[in-house]
Amino acid sequence: MNAVTPQVDIGVVLKGLTSDPEWFKKYAMAGLVTLVPLVGMLVLVGWLRRVFEAARQGDYDTLPTLNFSEDLSRGVAPFVAVLNLLLPFIVGLVGFGIVGAVVGVVGSAVDQGTNGSGAGGLLTMVMMLAMYAFLFVGIIAMNLAMPEFQRRGYKGEMTPIFSPGVSFRAVKRNLKPYVMVIVGLFVANLMSGIGVFACYIGMFLTMPMGMVVMARLLAQWDAVVEQSEIQAGERAALSTADPV
Fold this sequence. Notes:
Blueprint: H1 10-15, H2 23-32, H3 39-56, H4 68-74, H5 76-113, H6 119-154, H7 164-173, H8 175-193, H9 203-231
Helix pairs in contact: 2-9, 3-4, 3-9, 5-6, 6-9, 8-9
């Protein structure tokens, strides 16, 4: 990646995917650790955070060795940052569910009071359609916002949802690179799922590989964002990535 003009380059990320001499072992260890409920995912995310930091320094050829205790603590911030997106969505679904239940009761009462006119059923159907629309829009919005929340989580932020302006400005200034990140993450997700065809066992290898692609793409995106902030006078130029 060019240090003067940062860009999102999927080719660079994919090229270095198996450059580490111990790539098979390191991916396998990262995949197998997810067998540990909840804690294993935190460890994996912490390991990916170190992949992100290495890529910010221009290293796309080596992979860190999994360190359970260190990676566990380092995985908390990125994990919580992603929950910033999930929790409001879950709260919205619960809210719609409660409203839907109330509408159902009201609809039933309306039908009984109007001799089965069907008005209550129509009201309930409209409410259900609104819930499906919310679900559809919410899923799209989460997928579009996820890379930026992940990037900020890898930088150590735990509550990016409380400063949405930072992300809005980053995406607005660098829309084309962000689209490339979205496309790259789509490719990474496809790669992660390839292991399913190897009796599911292969997922313990392909899943961390796909997630490494994501982490390195986010590192490129972070460099783009940092450069745009420097140009906008929002921060002083740095010779290396920001300290964590």
